[in-house]
Design brief:
This protein is of the alpha+beta class. The two termini are 27 Å apart.
């Protein structure tokens, strides 16, 4: 993977995130926010997900795709041995190779959406996909054509909970900020409005539980590590109100980092 993995990821579209160096959740967040700069072209959102993605990957089809990618049959043989080593359906979650190969399995679909369907605004985080367009009917057409493409070329199916909805718009200014209507895009742990980005509600509630433990002086290793992770969400979202109300002056971040650092040295 150190040698062949970079060759695989080199062909990925810029919309492809997850299991690519430098393209994690924050990269996906920046891409969605970049899409919103085109207000006319992002009036509506299509949000889809592949059903049982890892388990639905066809092993022999994946090996044939790798044969098209690599001329050296020795590399293909090694990949084939790893892929077939798992006795279950599809690829196993947790194998070092699985995430990159799963991403590679959908890389042609990215090009199909970009080049054939002419979708300008799209972000894919593994099998979770969001697309934006100024025309609602066009997104319905894109969804149907992509679903047909995945079924016929990759033997994959979309989940039945796909959604097309109108994005928020600026209704007017107030001293407190923008007043927004409609719904937001819930994607990669964030909620994207047109003029702000917040944390997903479930993550926010877990953050509050961790904060309460730290406020009581329970600086356990688990709580320290969890808070450091949540701190990244707060740092990269419009969460100044959350920090003022629950965190500032109540939690010593230096003590949290020291607790996690000391545990790492002990391990």
């Amino acid at each position: 993977m150190q040698i062949a993995g970079s060759e695989i990821t080199r062909s990925f579209d810029r919309c492809s995130c997850a299991s690519v160096k430098g393209r994690g959740t924050h990269y996906a967040k920046r891409e969605v926010e970049r899409c919103f700069k085109d207000q006319r072209g992002t009036k509506y959102c299509l949000q889809i997900d592949v059903k049982s993605f890892y388990a639905s990957i066809d092993k022999e089809l994946l090996i044939r795709l790798l044969e098209r990618k690599f001329k050296d049959q020795r590399i293909v043989a090694i990949f084939a041995k790893i892929i077939r080593a798992y006795s279950g359906e599809g690829l196993p979650i947790g194998f070092y190779t699985s995430a990159t190969l799963a991403n590679f399995y959908l890389s042609d679909a990215d090009r199909y959406v970009r080049e054939t369907l002419k979708v300008r605004h799209m972000v894919r985080y593994m099998d979770d996909i969001v697309m934006y367009d100024g025309n609602k009917r066009r997104l319905h057409t894109v969804k149907d054509q992509l679903e047909h493409y995945l079924q016929t070329t990759r033997k994959l199916r979309l989940k039945g909970n796909w959604q097309i909805y109108k994005m928020p718009y600026q209704r007017g200014k107030s001293p407190e900020g923008y007043t927004e209507r409609r719904r937001a895009t819930d994607f990669v742990g964030f909620k994207f409005y047109r003029y702000k980005t917040t944390i997903r509600k479930t993550i926010f509630l877990r953050l509050l539980r961790t904060v309460r433990k730290l406020q009581k002086g329970k600086y356990s290793v688990r709580a320290a590590r969890a808070y450091i992770s949540y701190h990244g969400y707060l740092k990269h979202t419009d969460s100044e109100g959350v920090r003022r109300r629950y965190i500032n002056g109540k939690i010593k971040f230096s003590k949290v980092k020291e607790r996690a650092k000391n545990e790492k040295r002990t391990a």
